[in-house]
């Protein structure tokens, strides 16, 4: 516990240090991911030196460190420039071709860096650095290798059991890369450096965390894999919100053409079903035709299995292929505070209703599976089985599905502009728009090492995701306090 707290302290101190050899040259040109982080800007936006995070860290240091070690740590906290890193320039996180993770920092004062690692070695956090080939070499927590000279600090974290010898050989190669082998000289480096934001990223799409890769895969045409595309993105922290903008692209003309063709199957959303937005935990809409919708649903394994199950009795493909226009999904909490119990609704504009002629055949087929489909209104039905009910129907050219028997068809009526919630104003011109209302959440505060911590997620208002084109999207994390940068609000005491 002591080791991890002290190591966490070291990382936090980097964010508060702001002090200007080309340290970027150690990043290989074939890196799977490169992230540029303006630590000085983040520290300023978060007011990290006066934040709850640093306040909590000071308290935890008091629990695990004593005597000279405690005084040394507190001295670094009060004057982080003594760490020796020059962080007026960005830090660079990257992933190597064999999926090790790297960190490159600018060294400002090698003597101070020497003192830092001598101190960490005394605390048992790293080996005592040794000199070789004009650089100092060592290991943090056993497996994390690092090396530095008067201009560059490089750290590599192995992820697939690479031995220390192999990692050190990689680091030696990165310190002596030919110019054409450096990411610094690539077109992508120039493009991410031109992006606005404290954090800028280039990545192979399949190098992203699993959840992010899965999200991207669902946005791509069925025949395009995440290994075929790359992404550039940036993060901007402003008063009351954080915005992440991203663009997917491919150097393969065939793949890029497939993405462009898929985009033509999407439409600008009409905002047809905004009546259901107010009071929903999640409101998501996309403008598309049925073919695009089916291809997206079939890429999700759970939805694919569900569609196959339904198709035994219902021609769901015929039904969904009639869709052309807005498709909207709602999640509504059954309680004022979201507790995991919700009503699910889906609504879509349809251009034809020929599938309604097959309903009597579907009713007959369902009996073989001990499922009943009862007519409850004009072109409205309720499907009942032992463990679930599903309501569906067509009303004035609108197809709907609902898990709740009390579904109100007024949710499908066109709303006046005055009735549109303010956060939906940004929907105009988009092809895909999602809003998650985080005010429905009420998360407990928690205890960390005996210190009470207020849950920062309770300071959030909502999450917006919008896209104007396949492969281009923007996320906005919106805070309740619009008067200060979002990071500062989240980390406030």
Structural notes for this entry:
- With 493 residues, this protein is an alpha+beta fold.
- It has 3 domains: 2-187, no CATH class; 195-266 and 429-491, no CATH class; 269-419.
- Helices cover 29% and strands 29% of the residues.
- It has 14 helices and 23 strands.
- It has helices at residues 2-16, 39-46, 52-64, 67-78, 110-122, 164-175, 187-194, 210-219, 253-263, 290-299, 301-310, 316-321, 359-367, 486-491; strands spanning 33-37, 91-95, 101-106, 130-132, 135-140, 144-148, 152-157, 199-204, 230-238, 241-249, 266-267, 282-289, 323-333, 342-350, 372-377, 380-384, 389-395, 398-402, 432-437, 446-448, 451-453, 460-469, 472-479.
- It is elongated, with a radius of gyration of 27 Å.
- The model is unreliable at 1-9 and 11-21 (pLDDT under 50).
Summary tags:
29% helix, alpha+beta, two-stranded antiparallel ribbon, 29% strand, 493 residues, 21-stranded antiparallel β-sheet, 23 strands, elongated, 3 domains, single chain
SSE inventory with pairings:
Layout (H helix, E strand, L loop, with lengths): L1 H15 L16 E5 L1 H8 L5 H13 L2 H12 L12 E5 L5 E6 L3 H13 L7 E3 L2 E6 L3 E5 L3 E6 L6 H12 L11 H8 L4 E6 L5 H10 L10 E9 L2 E9 L3 H11 L2 E2 L14 E8 H10 L1 H10 L5 H6 L1 E11 L8 E9 L8 H9 L4 E6 L2 E5 L4 E7 L2 E5 L29 E6 L8 E3 L2 E3 L6 E10 L2 E8 L6 H6 L2
Antiparallel strand pairs: 1-2, 1-8, 2-3, 3-7, 4-5, 5-6, 6-7, 8-9, 9-10, 10-23, 11-12, 12-13, 12-19, 13-14, 14-18, 15-16, 16-17, 17-18, 19-22, 20-21, 22-23
Helix pairs in contact: 1-3, 3-4
Radius of gyration: 27 Å
Which regions are unreliable across 5 or more consecutive residues at pLDDT < 50?
A: 1-9, 11-21
Total separate domains: 3
User: How much is the average pLDDT?
Assistant: 84
- Shape category: elongated
User: What's the count of strands?
Assistant: 23
Structural class: alpha+beta
End-to-end distance: 24 Å
* Strand portion: 25-35%
Q: Describe the sheet with the most strands.
A: 21 strands, antiparallel
| Helical percentage | 25-40%
Separate helix tally:
14
């Amino acid at each position: 516990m002591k080791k991890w707290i002290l190591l966490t302290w070291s990382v936090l101190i980097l964010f508060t240090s702001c002090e200007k050899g080309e340290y970027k040259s150690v990043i290989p040109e074939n890196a799977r991911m490169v992230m540029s982080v303006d630590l000085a800007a983040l520290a300023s936006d978060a007011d990290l030196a006066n934040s709850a995070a640093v306040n909590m860290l000071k308290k935890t240091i008091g629990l695990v460190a004593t005597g000279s070690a405690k005084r040394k740590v507190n001295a670094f906290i009060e004057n982080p420039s003594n760490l020796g890193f020059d962080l007026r320039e960005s830090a660079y996180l990257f992933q190597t071709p064999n999926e090790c993770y790297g960190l490159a920092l600018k060294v400002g004062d090698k003597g101070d860096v020497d003192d830092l690692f001598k101190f960490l070695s005394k605390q048992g956090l790293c080996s005592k650095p040794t000199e070789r080939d004009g650089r100092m070499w060592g290991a943090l927590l056993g497996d994390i290798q690092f090396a530095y000279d008067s201009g560059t600090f490089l750290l590599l974290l192995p992820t697939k059991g690479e031995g220390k010898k192999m990692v050190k050989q990689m680091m030696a190669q990165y310190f002596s890369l030919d110019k054409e082998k450096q990411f610094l000289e690539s077109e992508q480096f120039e493009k991410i450096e031109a992006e606005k934001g404290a954090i800028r990223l280039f990545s192979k799409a399949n190098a992203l965390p699993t959840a992010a890769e899965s999200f991207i895969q669902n946005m791509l045409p069925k025949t395009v894999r995440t290994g075929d595309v790359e992404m550039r993105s940036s993060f901007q922290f402003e008063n009351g919100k954080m915005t992440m903008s991203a663009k997917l692209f491919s150097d393969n003309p065939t793949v890029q053409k497939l993405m462009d063709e898929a985009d033509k199957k999407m439409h600008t959303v009409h905002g047809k079903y905004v009546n259901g937005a107010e009071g929903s935990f999640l409101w998501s809409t996309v403008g598309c035709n049925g073919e695009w919708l089916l291809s997206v649903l079939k890429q999700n394994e759970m939805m694919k299995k569900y569609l196959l199950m339904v198709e035994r009795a219902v021609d769901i493909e015929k039904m969904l292929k009639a869709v052309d226009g807005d498709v909207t999904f709602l999640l509504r909490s059954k309680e004022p505070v979201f507790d995991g119990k919700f009503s699910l609704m889906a609504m879509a504009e349809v251009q034809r209703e020929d599938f309604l002629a097959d309903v009597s055949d579907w009713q007959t087929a369902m009996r073989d599976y001990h499922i009943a489909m009862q007519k409850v209104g004009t072109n409205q039905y309720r499907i009942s089985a032992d463990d679930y009910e599903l309501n569906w129907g067509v009303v004035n050219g609108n197809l709907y599905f609902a898990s709740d028997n009390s579904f109100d068809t007024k949710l499908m009526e066109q709303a006046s502009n005055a009735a549109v919630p303010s956060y939906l104003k940004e929907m105009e011109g988009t092809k895909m728009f999602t809003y998650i209302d985080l005010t429905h959440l009420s998360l407990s505060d928690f205890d960390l090492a005996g210190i009470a911590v207020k849950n920062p997620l309770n300071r959030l208002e909502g999450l917006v995701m919008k896209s104007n084109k396949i492969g281009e999207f923007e996320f906005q994390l919106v805070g309740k306090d619009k008067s200060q940068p979002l990071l500062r609000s989240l980390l406030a005491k």
